[in-house]
Design a protein that fits this description.
This protein is of the alpha/beta class and 298 residues long. It has a single domain, classed as Metallo-dependent phosphatases (Purple Acid Phosphatase, chain A, domain 2), CATH 3.60.21. Helices cover 27% and strands 21% of the residues. It is built from eight helices and twelve strands. The chain has helices at residues 2-18, 48-61, 79-84, 116-119, 149-152, 156-164, 181-196, 221-229; strands spanning 24-29, 66-69, 96-98, 127-131, 134-138, 200-205, 234-239, 246-250, 253-257, 268-274, 278-285, 290-293. Strands 3-2-1-10-11-12 form a six-stranded mixed sheet. The protein has a six-stranded mixed sheet with strand order 4-5-6-7-9-8, with helices on one face. Strand 10 and strand 11 form a beta hairpin. The longest helix has 17 residues, at 2-18. The protein is globular. The N and C termini lie far apart (41 Å).
């Protein structure tokens, strides 16, 4: 009799642990690349409207805390924003929506580029926010690039320098880009501030920085990696751009590339659950499931 009582007690305890509420639940969307044009190859441009609506319905049902988009909400044309952005208004009241810029977001008339922040309700090109003791840093991976310079008007010699540093490297493509020194200094201050306040950090970007040698990486991936991996409180770096998705764990940081929403007939998005000792990425459609330890080698 005592044995059964002990067994029941253990089962109740285990059940209680399995139902631990996450610290945060985050909806993640990468690369919808919506456009009113026919499917090409495995890119179902026009169907991204329905796929995003499905994701928003799921986010509402799961009572997530906020949505973070990872760039390339459109493929081409300013009018595409008018079709896809209203879908985010279907989020339940209280669920905030955060955007960042991808390379395709600049496939518009250059005169419209100055209106991008307003159209996407972004506070700045790069920014951060804090939720439940966690700091989320949103990077502008399109900072120094050929496609965005009509907006920023940087010295083209600086852009050329970043690009030429990738000579004979796999990421030497003009649809990639670099994060400049001003943003790097801001990032370093953000990481230092988070460490002082004992906040764990997750970074969001359109372009990846790992794995090493990936064709989609930032032109100056090595500079950003150095900042990230020298900061002990960074837990994850999450990005889009590589529609095939990817994952690598390196020097204490989980590098997660979300599968592109545009590249599937069904859909692809995720809900990231943050726990004290782990991250759980619940994948929908083509997005893979992941359970990742915090602070330990996987």
């Amino acid at each position: 009799m005592k044995y059964w009582l002990v067994l029941i007690t253990i089962l109740i305890a285990l059940s209680s642990c399995s139902k631990t509420e996450p610290i945060l639940k985050i909806g993640l969307v990468a690369d919808p690349q919506y456009a009113d044009k026919p499917t090409k190859g495995n890119r179902y441009y026009s169907e991204s409207l329905l796929k995003l609506e499905e994701a928003i319905d799921t986010f509402n049902y799961e009572n997530i805390d906020f949505v973070q988009n990872l760039g390339d909400i459109i493929d081409v044309e300013w009018a595409s924003y008018d079709a896809i952005m209203p879908i985010y208004q279907k989020l339940k009241p209280g669920i905030e929506n955060y955007q960042l810029l991808g390379n395709h977001d600049f496939s518009i008339d250059t005169t419209r580029m100055k209106n991008l922040l307003e159209k996407l309700s972004m506070p700045n090109y790069y920014y951060s926010y804090v939720k439940n003791g966690w700091r989320f840093i949103v990077l502008d991976a399109t900072d120094y690039s050929y496609f965005s310079n009509s907006l920023h008007n940087y010295d083209t010699n600086q852009i050329d320098s970043y690009y030429e540093n990738t000579m004979e490297k796999s990421n030497q493509y003009r649809w990639n880009s670099a994060i400049g020194m001003e943003q790097q200094k801001w990032l370093e201050k953000q990481l230092d501030s988070a460490k002082t306040l004992d906040q764990k950090v997750i970074l969001f970007s359109h372009l990846p920085v790992r794995p090493k040698g990936d064709i989609h990486n930032l032109w100056n991936d090595y500079e950003i990696i150095s900042l990230i991996e020298n900061s002990s409180n960074v837990v994850a770096f999450i990005n889009g751009h590589n529609h095939s998705g990817d994952y690598i764990f390196k020097n204490g940081v989980h590098y997660i590339t979300l599968f592109g929403m545009v590249d599937t007939m069904i859909s692809s998005y995720g809900i990231l659950e943050i726990y004290q000792d782990s991250l759980v990425l619940n994948g929908y459609g083509n997005q893979k499931q992941m359970v990742l330890n915090i602070g330990n080698d996987d």
